[in-house]
From TrEMBL:
<dbReference type="InterPro" id="IPR023393">
    <property type="entry name" value="START-like_dom_sf"/>
</dbReference>
<protein>
    <submittedName>
        <fullName>SRPBCC family protein</fullName>
    </submittedName>
</protein>
Length: 140
């Protein structure tokens, strides 16, 4: 399952990249997510999802300043790859985000089927998250 969203950000590409490259600042954009460092490019993530506490391993797998950054989260048979592409647009930036969810087990396949039913709500949530991210980057 893939989700994509784009937005314009009133901040230069490097400022946006710096925000996306700082997992603590990213986690602060949502009240439901906490991160604990587990190495230079690895974190243990905890989040409330559908009323349940979930944990995941989060790895930064690409950081190409200031154009691209990617993270992979794995939990309960699901793998989520989040990739952000950043481009200069006037005095600001164009941001494109692609989320890819893949099942890695039978349990993951069952969870993914449920998530597919909620895809419209997930897309709206991604849009709201990008709006918060744009406001945060613009304020920095």
């Amino acid at each position: 399952m893939n989700l994509t969203a784009t937005t314009m950000v009133d901040a230069p590409p490097q400022a946006l990249f710096d925000l996306l490259n700082d997992p603590d600042r990213l986690a602060a954009l949502t009240e439901a997510l906490t991160l604990e460092a587990d190495g230079d490019d690895r974190w243990q993530a905890s989040a409330t999802f559908q009323g349940r506490e979930e944990t995941a391993q989060l790895d930064r797998v690409a950081a190409e300043t200031p154009e691209r950054i990617a993270y992979v989260a794995t939990a309960r048979g699901l793998e989520l790859t989040a990739t952000a592409q950043i481009g200069a647009e006037g005095a600001g930036s164009a941001l494109g985000v692609d989320l890819s969810l893949v099942s890695r087990s039978m349990k993951g396949k069952m969870m993914l089927q449920g998530l597919k039913l909620a895809q419209p709500q997930l897309e709206k949530g991604l849009g709201r998250l990008l709006d918060r991210l744009a406001r945060e980057a613009s304020a920095a």
